[in-house]
Amino acid sequence: MRHDSMSWQDVRNLYKVSDMNAADNTAELIRQRILAMPAGQAFTPKSLLACGTRAAVDQTLSRLVKAGFIERLARGVFVQPEVSRFVGKVAPSPQNVAETLARATGDVVQVHGAEAARRLELTTQVPSQPIFATSGPSKRIRMGRMEIRLQHVCQRKLALAGRPAGLALAAMWYLGKNEVTPGLVEKIRHKLGASEFEVLKAAVSSMPAWMSDVLFRSERMTNHG
Q1: Pairing relation of β-strands 146-152 and 131-134?
Q2: Which of 8, 138, 163, 183 has a CA positioned 20 to 30 A from the CA of residue 75?
Q3: What is the pLDDT of residues 27-80, one digit of tens each?
Q4: C-alpha span between 167 and 119 (Å, rounded)
Q5: What is the pTM of this model?
C-alpha cells in the first residue's frame, strides 16, 4: 500500500541530512574566517562564535588541527602557521599570544616592566622569560618549549596599556624610585616625543607619590633650564 505521508524514519533521516549540511556550512565558515586572518596570528574559539555554536566551533577546530590546517599553541589558543621559505614555520610572538588571550577574556595586558625598560633603552638587560602584566588572574601558558607568564597587577599599573606612554609607566614602576631620576625621565621624554609624554604626565593620578614627584622635578628643571 502506498503512503503519501513520510514515516518517522524518513523524518529522522531528513533531520540527519539537515544537521550534516549545517555542520558542513559551519565548518566551511570557520575555515574561511581563519583563512582571512593574517598567517601566524593567534586566535581563540571565542573569535569564531559568529560562525556557529561553541560546541560546533570546538569540534571544527579539533578536526582542523588533526588535518594539519591549524595548530594548537596552548589550551584554547590556535594559529594557522606562517611559513617562511628560509626557516619553515614561524611561531607567533609571545605578545601576540598574550594579547589574544586578553581579548578573549576581556582583560588588559601589558608587557612587563623589564621588557618595557629594554624597549625604551633604559636598560640593556634582556628578560630571560616572556612575562606580561594583566588585570586578569596570574597564569602560565606552555607554548612548545616556551612558557609565557601572565602576572596579575593592580589596575593603575595598566592605566596606559597598549600605547608608548604605557611602556614608560611600566618601566618606571619596574625600575623603582632609586633609579627613576629626573635624568631618566628626560630620556623617556626624548623616546616618547612631546605628545606622548603629555599623555604620560596626564596619568599622574595612577602614579605613586615618588613617581609623580620625579616627573614634577623633571618638568621644573626643563622649564628653568
Answers
A1: parallel
A2: 163
A3: 889 999 999 988 888 999 999 999 888 999 999 999 999 998 888 888 888 998
A4: 8
A5: 0.75
Residues 169-180 have pLDDT tens digits of: 999 999 999 999
The whole-angstrom separation of Cα 97 and Cα 142 is 11
Q: Are residues 177 and 98 in the same domain?
A: yes
Give the closest residue to 51 by CA, choosing from 80, 67, 27, 69.
27
Question: Are the C-beta atoms of 151 and 134 separated by less than 8 Å?
Answer: yes
Residues 111, 209, single domain; the answer is yes
> 86 Cβ partners below 8 Å, 6+ apart?
none
Distance CA 126, CA 145 (A): 19
- Count the helix, strand and coil residues of the chain and give each as a percent rounded to the nearest 5: 55, 15, 30
74 and 145 assigned to the same domain: no
